[in-house]
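Annex B.
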Amino acid sequence: MIAVNLVSVLHTQLRGSGCQVFNSDLKIAIPGNPRSKGRKRSEGDEFVTYPDAGIICGQPEYYKGDRFTIANPVALFEILSPSTRIYDRNTKAEEYKKIPGLNYYVIIDSEEVRVECRQRVAGNAWMELTPLELLEDKLKLVFAKEIEISLASLYEGITFEEDEV
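Uma2 family endonuclease: predicted structure tokens.
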């Protein structure tokens, strides 16, 4: 449900800006050494993965001509689940930083109201913004225009399990 809410909000906010949202149907790729199927990935190998959502501004650039693999996202979004939490926060975060035009990496928690945003500030330097933890909070991202994503809209329709005492 969070992914649907996210893509819906982004689509509405980006309308007319020259930027567009994509969902987890498209892969993103970070170039590296080609890897044959079945061989374990090692440092320096190409990295191809499915983010939960992303944003492209301008024309999409396709990795190795594959129309289902984007090479030029400006923002990527991951929704944490218990099984992907560590991978999304560590492996994907480090690989995503290698994408030259990527400006934002946003991590949305599915087990509590919490949104983390990492922003490229200059060259290869990244800054982690203060996490947002209230439904009243708004995440502000700047592309061709500034957009605001309210946490209330991201978590609309979501109920969290109460901690058992």
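Helices lie at 2-14, 85-96, 151-154. The chain is about 20% helix and 30% strand. Further annotation is deferred to the next reporting cycle.
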